[in-house]
Design goal:
Elements lengths: L1 H18 L5 H19 L3 H15 L8 H20 L15 H25 L5 H28 L6 H25 L4 H21 L3 H28 L7 H17 L1 H8 L5 H12 L5 H12 L5 H6 L5 E4 L4 E5 L5 E5 L4 H8 L5 E3 H7 L7 H10 L1 E9 L2 E9 L9 H67 L9 H16 L3 E4 L7 H9 L8 E5 L8 H5 L5 H4 L4 E5 L6 H13 L13 E6 L3 H6 L5 H5 L9 E2 L10 H16 L5 E2 L1 H8 L6 H20 L3 E2 L6 E2 L4 E2 L1 H9 L4 H9 L1
């Protein structure tokens, strides 16, 4: 490839030099340039650029026009024009949602071929037939070159209109068009001034335009390229203008002409170097975003985070045209993420922050855009082809935002900078996108700090709210626990009421004190009570004096078949184990429970674990009652060994409750209390007992214990109620009847002497 390019170009240059009348410094320089371009064409990887370099080398090698070298010049011009069409078509986009559609190369290539075909036929036919180049053929070559240049420039202009929303592409095409116009103007000026012949000037301009198209389409960074082209063309145009003026003014004054021309050229260079600054002063609205971004970046330096961001947002308002800038009707917004909050600056310059919601697809789409800047006009251009972007485009229109630039730090998105839409402001350029990117990078640390502070404040508020709710719940739970504890104490007090009277005998007192010691120590309790003696009041009263006074006292009647259901003991909703957790479980007549139920209770107490899934441990104090010593029941296999082991020392040292006959000192208090309560129930007033009647009761054996005493009291009150209605009190004049409220000796003898049967008891109760 390198050898072929050098050989072809070198051959054309050699032929041109031999055919020329004389070869000066310019000819040698053109030959060197041609060889350099040929060498470059073999080194570049881009095919259009390589062909453009080769074509330009052919034109430079054949610039010394002769009938023989005109054909290589035409070939070079045609190749560079075709390469320019291909290069302009293949300009790479920087990415994003706006993608240029594939343009067909056939139209451009056919147009170039159609333009050059008549001139090529005319030149070739003239050389073949006459071996001379007539004037008409040269004019056709100049016309074809001019039309080819216009076609390439028009192709680039059409591409610029079609791809004006693609950042980077517009800058490259603008640079090409500016260079093409400059080169065309220089070529025309050179031809008019007679500096160069028309045919070589036309071919050279065509080759340079084609080469420029390929170079601007592929090489360099778009913004830097556009800046360099603007400055270079400004310098060239200014220098050419001064040179042309000098030529027309001092053409007849030969003295000091060179010195004056050099001075004018130097002035042109100085003025051209300052053209960007001059342009910023005169270009008006086209550079407002750049100036506003620069002022915003400067406002962030050396300030407090919140104050700096507020000043930056206020500076971005300078991008608005003068009428809107004066009113500040619209302003830039800074959206911070996690939590999403919007920071705005009002017309008075005060910052305000409000919570809001950001479309999640905005972040995803903006990440794929050049410089992470999403444009509303780009969304509007693709919303027909991309239905998924229509809601986002509508949101940008409703918010009246022109651009959204992501603020990133370490790969994490910290916020979004929005610029509003202003009428009269042109589309966003890549240079302005770079400026917004630099501003966003400067805002990233401040947004990160503000986001951390906002998250900490949110966490603090949530912690305060949770603490307040937790305190409220804790107070409510404490109140509920206090109520439950009070209810437990009241329930135990009701159960202990019968034991509140009649604990005067030594044996009664000893049994109660033993129970009280065990409840205070939270030790297992075993009670042996004769049939007819209710142990519940003693246990309840001891429980009220024990360590678990506020805990529940759960009574399980082992003689009830309901308590024999093993599934009920395993049910977490109704199991007595769950109800007694934290309190005392009392198994009344424990030996009456089935052995499997006893084993389940013993295992749960031993392992401190309920028979279902639960995280915390089981905490229960055990108490059982029997009518026989627990050790005897265990030896008879009526008490499960595992349950018996949970009794500890209490199985061998149970508390024995005395019977009625063993506590004569308590009989009067018990009888008096029961007669008073039964009298209130039956007669509406307490019923008493005289001494003679009480003496008979003391001597009674009470084989049925408390149950027999309760039945006896009921019969005595019923007798008093029946017979009391016939007693007459004659102390008043005429006499009045008054119900009798004292049990007498005769009543006791009558009740004790009779042997009641169930039928007689029923009849007596009905009476």
């Amino acid at each position: 490839m390198l050898a072929g390019a050098l050989a072809s170009v070198g051959y054309v240059a050699l032929v041109g030099i031999r055919g020329a009348h004389q070869v000066g410094l310019a000819g040698a320089l053109l030959a060197t340039v041609a060889l350099a371009l040929a060498w470059t064409s073999a080194r570049v990887r881009d095919r259009p650029l390589a062909w453009a370099c080769w074509g330009a080398a052919m034109v430079a090698a054949s610039i010394e026009v002769s009938p023989v070298t005109l054909v290589p010049a035409m070939v070079g011009a045609i190749v560079t024009s075709a390469a320019a069409v291909v290069g302009l078509t293949r300009i790479a986009s920087l990415g994003g949602i706006v993608r240029g559609r594939e343009r067909s190369l056939r139209v451009g290539l056919l147009l170039v071929g159609a333009i050059w075909l008549p001139a090529a036929i005319a030149v070739v036919s003239s050389l073949v037939m006459q071996r001379e180049l007539p004037y008409s053929s040269g004019a056709m070559v100049v016309g074809a070159a001019g039309l080819s240049t216009l076609a390439v420039a028009g192709y680039g202009g059409a591409a610029s209109l079609e791809r004006q929303l693609e950042l980077g592409v517009a800058e490259r095409l603008s640079a090409f068009l500016l260079l093409a116009a400059t080169l065309a103007g220089l070529g025309v000026l050179a031809g008019v001034a007679g500096i160069a012949d028309g045919v070589p000037a036309a071919c050279a301009v065509t080759a340079l335009v084609g080469l420029t198209a390929c170079v601007t389409a592929q090489l360099g960074e778009p913004v830097a390229l556009w800046r360099g082209v603007r400055r270079g063309t400004a310098l060239a145009g200014f220098a050419v203008a001064l040179g042309a003026t000098f030529a027309f003014l001092v053409v007849d004054q030969h003295a000091h002409a060179r010195e004056l021309a050099f001075a004018l050229a130097l002035v042109a260079l100085v003025v051209g170097a300052e053209l960007p600054r001059i342009a910023r002063k005169v270009r008006g609205t086209t550079g407002r975003r750049l100036a506003a971004s620069a002022l915003a970046a400067q406002a962030l330096r050396g300030r407090d985070a919140d104050l700096g961001i507020a000043h930056a947002l206020r500076a971005l308002g300078g991008a608005a045209p003068p009428p809107l800038a004066a009113t500040k009707a619209q302003a830039a917004e800074l959206w911070s993420l996690d939590p999403v909050r919007v920071l705005r600056v009002d017309a008075a310059g005060y910052a305000s922050e409000t919570p809001s919601e950001l479309p999640p697809e905005l972040l995803v789409v903006a990440l794929g855009e050049p410089q992470s800047t999403l444009r509303a006009e780009a969304l509007a251009a693709v919303e027909i082809r991309r239905p998924d972007l229509r809601p986002l485009s509508q949101w940008m229109r409703d918010a009246k935002m022109a651009t959204a630039t992501l603020i990133t730090r370490g790969g994490d998105i910290e916020g979004v900078l929005f610029l509003p839409t202003y009428e009269g402001i042109p589309s966003l350029t890549l240079e302005e996108a770079y400026a917004l990117r630099e501003l966003a990078d400067a805002l990233a640390p401040l947004c990160h700090a503000r986001a951390k502070l906002a998250r900490s404040m949110v966490r603090e508020n949530e912690a305060r709210t949770e603490a307040g709710d937790a305190t409220t719940r804790a107070d409510r739970l404490e109140h509920q626990l206090a109520r439950a504890a009070a209810h437990n104490a009241l329930a135990a007090a009701r159960l202990a009421r019968p034991a509140a009277v009649g604990i005067y005998a030594a044996r009664s007192r000893a049994a109660y004190e033993a129970l009280e010691r065990l409840t205070k120590a939270q030790a297992p309790i075993a009670i042996v009570a004769p049939s007819g003696v209710d142990p519940v009041p003693f246990l309840a009263r001891a429980h009220l004096a024990g360590a678990r006074v506020r805990a529940p006292l759960v009574l399980v009647d082992a003689t009830s078949t309901r308590e024999h259901d093993l599934a009920r003991w395993r049910d977490p909703a109704s199991s007595p184990l769950e109800l007694a957790d934290g309190g005392v479980l009392v198994l009344l007549d424990a030996a009456a429970l089935p052995l499997d139920v006893q084993r389940l209770i013993g295992q749960s107490l031993a392992e401190r674990r309920v028979p279902w899934e639960r995280a915390d441990a089981l905490d229960i104090a055990l108490a059982i009652t029997t009518i026989e010593p627990p050790r005897d029941l265990a030896d008879q296999n009526r008490l499960d060994p595992l349950l018996a082991s949970r009794l500890g020392a209490a199985i061998d040292e149970p508390v024995h409750l005395p019977g009625i006959a063993d506590r004569p000192e308590d009989i009067r208090a018990i009888v008096t209390d029961r007669l008073a309560r039964e009298g209130l129930r039956v007669c509406g007033a307490p019923v008493g007992i005289d001494d003679a009647a009480f003496t008979l009761l003391v001597d009674h054996p009470f084989e049925g214990e408390e149950a027999e005493l309760a039945a006896l009291v009921q019969r005595l009150v019923a007798r008093v109620a029946r017979s009391g209605a016939g007693d007459v009190d004659g102390s008043a004049a005429g006499g009045t009847s008054r119900a009798r409220d004292v049990v007498r000796e005769a009543d006791v003898r009558a009740v004790l002497g009779a042997q009641p049967t169930p039928t007689s008891l029923s009849r007596e109760r009905r009476a």
